[in-house]
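Re: duplicated header lines in exported structure tokens

Our pipeline writes sequence and tokens for each protein into one text file. With two proteins the header for the second block appears twice in some exports. Here is an export where it did not happen, for reference. First protein block:
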Amino acid sequence: MKENRQKTLDRLARLEGQVRGIAKMVSEDRYCVDILAQTAAVRSALKAVERLILEDHAHHCVQAAIDSGDPAEQQAKFQELIALLQKTQA
């Protein structure tokens, strides 16, 4: 997460604010459609955070396994990456 650390932290801080805003909207009994629009924005922003973290994982952890030359480590990181992609695409 070295390359995208600050971007990730900035986006998470914005997400935190958005979620607090949604909670306030619910407590104020705001219009449901407005609340749902905000939850959709949060989902989209969270997906962007996931992409940054996955990118860093590929560039650092997966690349380290490739560079190691160890087939078992390479296979493990490959399987891990596939599992992560499946979880984030669900």
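Second protein block, exported in the same file:
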Amino acid sequence: MYDFLNNNLWLFWLFIGLVCLITEMTLGTFFVFCLAIGAFFTVIFSLLSCPFWFQIVAFAVLSVVSIFFVRPVMIRFLHKEHNERLSNVDALIGRVGVVIEDIKGESNGYVKIDGDEWRAVSCDSSDILNGERVRVVKMDSLVVTVERLN
């Protein structure tokens, strides 16, 4: 078994690269993708019969170089329309929901947005009835301010 692995180290590096790619699909950070790049380039060194210590050093160096040069390019390429990615409550602004409890004048009602219920008020103090579609325009603490969609 040891002789097989020693004679076919390229399979080891190929396996490491594939595991890194699969892991990257679940994370989406492009760090593990850089490790995969290092592993795939190390397959070449393994096929050239370089010593194992050299392969490990090559893997480490290529992975670090990928993190500094490949990762920023990938992030810019794949997230070019979203320079600032909103999260949590900030991501609700602009979302569309449905009124599930009437919003009367300046009184609170409730809207359902992406399966979550939020206390809501109308942006222009108009009545918005149950079942109408609304868009979130502002967020104050736990209360969303909405406008009626036409």
